[in-house]
């Protein structure tokens, strides 16, 4: 946990040895306290060096220990002892020094940030020699340093506070950081440290800290995919991907090309028409150049090839199809790819919800077919849903997961069903929002409630950004609206369920969101982003309600949050039951990285557990009773089961889920 050695007969070298990141666990703190005592008491030791094993100084407190009560010696007295000691202590920093690890470095009298380990001992000895020869330690103690305090501190911190409140709505930690900076600038060291400890204790005991810790581990858990067959992340070898092809240079295709090229993969981009190819090419080049400039590297344009011919794809390792969301078109592309590509080429589809297995079925290699659902814009958004069809091989899944990681994505393996995880859950969430419109709410009221909850964007602003026509087309194709609707259907019901036609009415007016300058809101111009409430939408809602004799009522923010978010989580429970997601963590990661769910709330499933499953169940029962024609509000059997089992912690739900239905 901490190794103690004497170097050059006078330097005590203390090495943190807690892989993988040398976190300050109770055992490490204990070993460090002992080592420091030994070093300070040994007359041969004239200086101490602290470093971390395997190229990482220290990843901070051991977050795994936060779940339980504090064990072992606390960190602060150890830091105080180092800072106040009579022997110079040097932090030899390599890799990371985070959180408590950074504090450890700060209390050392000298810090060396170094990259080449072979220079390690030499640099330290030099630094220590310098300190002994010339400088009294008092000038090196952090507690003796004066903090510069700008005369306009209050005004400065006020501006920063406003900015933080806007950017990190409802998040406590950044505001506490500002208060800690104020304490550092205005108080003596001992008082400032006390104030910082108080702030830390407040944060530590908040639900937000628990949620953020959960998110940290959920993200890492998601990478550890597992299939019912026993294949999993650590026993399935991914293929090496050197070359790839993208079919379709629309918004998604362009983003995927950029994501691949910037990690050094050769890409052939295919379009069906010369004009589209040329436009796509110019856009991709521009995106790559801007990206390279931002990162201070040269753009990898030499890795790109643009073509109109699928024949050029015969030798690539992997193809990602990103054509229009149309099953017949995608099937034609996959049939063609089967003929053109060598038999070992992996065939991936960037569909946002279509049946991956149906596509696999038209190829000569269903085991090499997998869904790679990117989120728009694909070169920016971190989430990748890897959709495992029933015939996708473990090697295929491992390759898609590993390629996602290589592109810097957070990849989550999910099963194959309409909408997969993310978009399947979105439907009940959006349905609730539109039902609330019918009942008396406005788009801006609903958005405000969701944004106050912490979402970067409420559901209507998000829809305007994404484009309303996509959902409208899907609803028309599935006979929910348009000429194919059975005239015997009552106007607000489809398939025996409640249906809200307001989104269709909005689209019928050519209001497709930001791109047309009108949607649920109005914008200054097509493509504008500044959303303003539109009186025309208000009129439309009033006329609609009067046509159907709906008496509008006052709807509270609490009802908005409960109906939207509990319906969302309820679908998450069904997804777990259906085996479409392996764990609640996977669902939460999808919502955190793909749908702007506030991180300090942990994701929809963690949020449900924090509210209390019993309460979620009770509210869903209440709302379902009030709206019996909305099946999404009927509590899922898994939720009922978990409540009956005493509402276990989210990390143990998996034990209560029958795996026999797994689609993974
Ligand atoms: C008393 C309170 C005092 C101070 C407060 C604190 O110190 S709070 C903790 C502050 N530290 C952090 O927030 C660091 C969190 N870790 C990271 O940001 C990254 O893990 C890191 C260190 C940059 C390394 O990133 P990398 O991508 O290289 O690896 P990865 O994230 O996959 O992590 C590897 C495994 O290490 C585990 N791990 C990382 N940090 C911690 C930690 N602080 N405590 C416990 N475990 C940690 C991580 O879970 C991974 O585990 P694995 O089992 O392999 O999934």
TrEMBL record:
<keyword id="KW-0413">Isomerase</keyword>
<feature type="domain" description="3-hydroxyacyl-CoA dehydrogenase NAD binding">
    <location>
        <begin position="244"/>
        <end position="416"/>
    </location>
</feature>
<feature type="domain" description="3-hydroxyacyl-CoA dehydrogenase C-terminal">
    <location>
        <begin position="419"/>
        <end position="523"/>
    </location>
</feature>
<comment type="subunit">
    <text>Monomer.</text>
</comment>
<feature type="domain" description="3-hydroxyacyl-CoA dehydrogenase C-terminal">
    <location>
        <begin position="560"/>
        <end position="651"/>
    </location>
</feature>
<dbReference type="GO" id="GO:0006635">
    <property type="term" value="P:fatty acid beta-oxidation"/>
</dbReference>
<keyword id="KW-0456">Lyase</keyword>
<protein>
    <recommendedName>
        <fullName>Peroxisomal bifunctional enzyme</fullName>
        <ecNumber>1.1.1.35</ecNumber>
        <ecNumber>4.2.1.17</ecNumber>
        <ecNumber>5.3.3.8</ecNumber>
    </recommendedName>
</protein>
<keyword id="KW-0560">Oxidoreductase</keyword>
<dbReference type="InterPro" id="IPR018376">
    <property type="entry name" value="Enoyl-CoA_hyd/isom_CS"/>
</dbReference>
<dbReference type="InterPro" id="IPR036291">
    <property type="entry name" value="NAD(P)-bd_dom_sf"/>
</dbReference>
<dbReference type="GO" id="GO:0004300">
    <property type="term" value="F:enoyl-CoA hydratase activity"/>
</dbReference>
<dbReference type="InterPro" id="IPR001753">
    <property type="entry name" value="Enoyl-CoA_hydra/iso"/>
</dbReference>
<dbReference type="InterPro" id="IPR008927">
    <property type="entry name" value="6-PGluconate_DH-like_C_sf"/>
</dbReference>
<dbReference type="Pfam" id="PF02737">
    <property type="entry name" value="3HCDH_N"/>
</dbReference>
<dbReference type="InterPro" id="IPR006176">
    <property type="entry name" value="3-OHacyl-CoA_DH_NAD-bd"/>
</dbReference>
<dbReference type="InterPro" id="IPR029045">
    <property type="entry name" value="ClpP/crotonase-like_dom_sf"/>
</dbReference>
<keyword id="KW-0520">NAD</keyword>
<dbReference type="InterPro" id="IPR006108">
    <property type="entry name" value="3HC_DH_C"/>
</dbReference>
<keyword id="KW-0576">Peroxisome</keyword>
<dbReference type="GO" id="GO:0005777">
    <property type="term" value="C:peroxisome"/>
</dbReference>
<keyword id="KW-0276">Fatty acid metabolism</keyword>
<comment type="similarity">
    <text>In the C-terminal section; belongs to the 3-hydroxyacyl-CoA dehydrogenase family.</text>
</comment>
<dbReference type="GO" id="GO:0004165">
    <property type="term" value="F:delta(3)-delta(2)-enoyl-CoA isomerase activity"/>
</dbReference>
<dbReference type="GO" id="GO:0003857">
    <property type="term" value="F:(3S)-3-hydroxyacyl-CoA dehydrogenase (NAD+) activity"/>
</dbReference>
<dbReference type="GO" id="GO:0070403">
    <property type="term" value="F:NAD+ binding"/>
</dbReference>
<comment type="pathway">
    <text>Lipid metabolism; fatty acid beta-oxidation.</text>
</comment>
<keyword id="KW-0443">Lipid metabolism</keyword>
<dbReference type="InterPro" id="IPR006180">
    <property type="entry name" value="3-OHacyl-CoA_DH_CS"/>
</dbReference>
<keyword id="KW-0511">Multifunctional enzyme</keyword>
<dbReference type="Pfam" id="PF00378">
    <property type="entry name" value="ECH_1"/>
</dbReference>
<comment type="similarity">
    <text>In the N-terminal section; belongs to the enoyl-CoA hydratase/isomerase family.</text>
</comment>
<dbReference type="Pfam" id="PF00725">
    <property type="entry name" value="3HCDH"/>
</dbReference>
């Amino acid at each position: 946990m901490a190794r103690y050695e004497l170097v050059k007969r006078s330097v005590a070298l203390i090495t943190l040895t807690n892989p993988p990141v040398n976190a300050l666990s109770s055992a490490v703190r204990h070993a460090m306290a002992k080592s420091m005592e030994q070093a300070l008491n040994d007359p041969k030791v004239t200086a101490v060096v602290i470093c971390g094993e395997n190229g990482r100084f220290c990843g901070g407190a051991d977050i795994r220990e936060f779940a339980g009560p504090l064990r072992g010696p606390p960190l602060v007295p150890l830091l105080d002892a180092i800072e106040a000691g009579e022997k110079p202590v040097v932090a030899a920093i390599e890799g990371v020094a985070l959180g408590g690890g950074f504090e450890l470095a700060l209390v050392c009298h000298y810090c060396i940030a170094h990259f080449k380990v072979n220079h390690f001992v030499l640099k330290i000895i030099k630094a220590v020699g310098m300190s002994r020869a010339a400088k009294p330690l008092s000038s090196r103690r952090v507690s003796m340093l004066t903090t510069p305090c700008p005369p306009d501190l209050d005004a400065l911190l006020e501006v920063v506070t406003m900015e933080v409140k806007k950017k990190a709505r409802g998040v406590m930690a950044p505001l506490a950081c500002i208060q800690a900076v104020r304490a550092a600038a205005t108080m003596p060291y001992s008082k400032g440290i006390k104030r910082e400890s108080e702030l830390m204790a407040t944060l530590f005991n908040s639900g937000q800290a628990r949620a953020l810790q959960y998110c940290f581990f959920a993200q890492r858990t998601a990478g550890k995919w597992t299939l019912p067959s026993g294949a999993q992340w650590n026993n399935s070898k991914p293929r090496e991907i050197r070359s790839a092809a993208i079919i379709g240079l629309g918004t998604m295709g362009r983003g995927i090309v950029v994501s691949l090229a910037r990690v050094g993969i050769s890409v052939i981009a295919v379009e069906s028409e010369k004009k589209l190819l040329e436009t796509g090419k110019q856009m991709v080049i521009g995106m790559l150049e801007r990206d390279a400039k931002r990162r201070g590297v040269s753009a990898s344009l030499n890795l790109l090839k643009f073509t109109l011919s699928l024949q050029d794809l015969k030798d690539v390792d992997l193809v990602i199809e990103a054509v229009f969301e149309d099953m017949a078109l995608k099937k034609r592309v996959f049939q063609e790819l089967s003929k053109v590509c060598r038999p070992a080429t992996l065939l991936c589809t960037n569909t946002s919800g279509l049946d991956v297995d149906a596509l696999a079925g038209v190829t000569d290699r269903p085991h090499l077919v997998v869904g790679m659902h990117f989120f728009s814009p694909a070169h920016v958004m971190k989430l990748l849903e890897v959709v495992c069809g029933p015939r996708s091989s473990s090697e295929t899944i491992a390759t898609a997961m590993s390629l996602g990681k290589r592109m810097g994505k957070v990849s989550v393996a999910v099963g194959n069903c309409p909408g997969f995880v993310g978009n399947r859950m979105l439907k009940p969430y959006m349905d609730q929002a539109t039902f609330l419109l019918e009942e008396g709410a406005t788009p801006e009221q609903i958005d405000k409630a969701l944004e106050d909850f912490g979402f970067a964007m409420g559901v209507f602003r998000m829809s305007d950004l994404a484009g309303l026509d996509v959902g409208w087309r899907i609803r028309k194709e599935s006979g929910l609206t348009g000429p194919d609707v059975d005239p015997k259907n009552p106007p607000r019901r489809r398939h025996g369920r409640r249906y809200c036609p307001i989104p269709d009415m909005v689209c019928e007016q050519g209001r497709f969101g930001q791109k047309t300058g009108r949607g649920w809101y109005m914008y200054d111009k097509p493509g504008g982003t500044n959303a303003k409430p539109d009186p025309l939408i208000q009129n439309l809602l009033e006329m609609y309600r009067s046509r159907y004799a709906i008496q509008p009522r006052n709807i509270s923010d609490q009802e908005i949050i409960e109906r939207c978010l509990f319906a969302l989580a309820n679908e998450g429970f069904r997804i777990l039951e259906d085996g479409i997601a392996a764990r609640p963590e996977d669902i939460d990661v999808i919502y955190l990285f793909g749908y702007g769910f506030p991180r300090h709330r942990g994701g929809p499933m963690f949020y449900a557990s924090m509210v209390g499953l019993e309460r979620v169940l009770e509210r869903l029962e209440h709302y379902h009773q009030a709206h019996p024609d909305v099946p999404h509000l009927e509590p899922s059997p898994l939720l009922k089961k978990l409540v009956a089992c005493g509402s276990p912690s989210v990390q143990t739900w998996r034990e209560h889920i029958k795996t026999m239905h797994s689609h993974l």
